[in-house]
Amino acid sequence: MAGPDAARLRADRTASLDNIVMDCYEVFDRLGHPDAISSQDLVRELRQMPGPRWAPHWPRTALTQRRLAELLAPYEVFSRDVTLPDGRRRKSYRRSAIVGALQELYC
């Protein structure tokens, strides 16, 4: 597909993918702004959110840790090994990375 329609579709897709960053931030907010959330816990929380904001072409329930990593990579948000407050050492996303991505998108 070429022309303005293709450009509009790419822009719409990018805008909807930007919402994944906002949804991640909303999860951090809802959980009391922890420094980090395990990838597993973040995926679980995102799956429970309503609406197709960032996944209009596939169901939220199909979200996996790998797919989340792929969606966040363009925003330079990556999981890291983190020891969580409960003592678990897990691949996790840091709140500071999500906030940084939001600042890049909206400031």
Describe the 3D structure.
- There is one protein chain.
- With 107 residues, the chain is an alpha+beta fold.
- The protein contains four helices and three strands; from the N terminus they run αβααββα.
- It has helices spanning 4-30, 39-48, 65-72, 95-106; strands spanning 36-38, 80-83, 89-94.
- It has a three-stranded antiparallel sheet.
- Helix 1 (4-30) runs antiparallel to helix 4 (95-106).
- The longest helix has 27 residues, at 4-30.
- The chain is globular.
- The termini are far apart.
Structural class: alpha+beta
Determine the oligomeric state from the structure: single chain
Overall spatial form: globular
Task: Kindly provide the radius of gyration, computed on alpha-carbon positions and rounded to a whole number of angstroms.
Answer: 15 Å
As residue ranges, the low-confidence spans are 1-13
How many helices does DSSP assign?
Answer: 4
Number of strands: 3
Mean pLDDT across all amino acids: 83
Short recap of the structure:
The chain is α+β, with helices and mostly antiparallel strands and 107 residues long. Helices cover 53% and strands 12% of the residues.
Write the layout of secondary structure elements.
Layout: H1 4-30, E1 36-38, H2 39-48, H3 65-72, E2 80-83, E3 89-94, H4 95-106
Antiparallel strand pairs: 1-3, 2-3
Which tags fit this structure?
107 residues
